[in-house]
Amino acid sequence: MIEMQGVFKKYPNGVSAINGIDVKINPGEFVYVVGPSGAGKSTFIKMMYREEVPTSGTITINGVNIAKLKMSKVPIFRRNIGVVFQDFKLLPNLTVYENVAFALEVIEAQPKFIKKRVMEVLDLVGLKHKIKMFPSELSGGEQQRVSIARSIVNSPRVVIADEPTGNLDPETSWEIMKLFEEINARGTTVVMATHNKEIVNTLKHRVIAIEDGRIVRDEHRGEYGYEN
């Protein structure tokens, strides 16, 4: 599903964020990416959805080496992955329904299919009753639920989440994690960068630890391993 081989990333200012990563993530896995601040986690995650491009090495997702992908092909590639951010990134002038539907409208899906699919995913995240509300009228947890619904509406094989509970209170964080568990149980690969020690140590999955741009630990059903 996801494979990195000999990946390095050096920024123009001379900072080396990733220093030789080799890793393979199989279909259906749930993987936490952990490590101290500045370790390279965000760059590692961003390279998976082509926000950052490696200086060298290959990154293969769904059989495509995205390190060599032309910019004109990036939007097509991103249709097959879902991305969830810490700050939600919802469109403020669109309703809950419209934010989720937008992901299908850009690929010119049929209106009847859009309506059916959007209502399905909003039902899954528990927001079917708030389809006409705007992001500013929702709590942080509800906004993140909309973001998750948008990320899975295209039925992606991979969902990449960058600190998805970072701006949420503990109770809401657990509710959001239940959604990710449900998405993974349906067969979707989930890769999640997180600082949440309690979640990692309670909901056991594979843990990839990054320090100084290198993978220093890769454990099946691992633990967080750092002090927050």
UniProtKB/TrEMBL annotation:
Q: Where is this chain's protein located in or outside the cell?
A: Cell membrane
- Pfam families (alphabetical): ABC_tran
Q: How does it sit in the membrane?
A: Peripheral membrane protein
Q: Name one GO molecular function term.
A: transmembrane transporter activity
Q: Say if the entry is tagged with keyword Cell wall biogenesis/degradation.
A: no
Identify the keywords attached in UniProt to this record, alphabetized: ATP-binding, Cell cycle, Cell division, Cell membrane, Membrane, Nucleotide-binding, Transport
What residues does the ABC transporter domain cover?
A: 2-228
An annotated GO cellular component of this protein is: plasma membrane
Q: Which PROSITE patterns match?
A: ABC_TRANSPORTER_1, ABC_TRANSPORTER_2
Which GO terms fall under biological process for this protein? Answer: cell division
**Family membership noted in the UniProt record:** Belongs to the ABC transporter superfamily.
Quote the subunit structure annotation.
Homodimer. Forms a membrane-associated complex with FtsX.
Q: What does this protein do?
A: Part of the ABC transporter FtsEX involved in cellular division.
Q: What is this protein called?
A: Cell division ATP-binding protein FtsE
Its source organism is: Neobacillus thermocopriae
Gene name linked to the record: ftsE
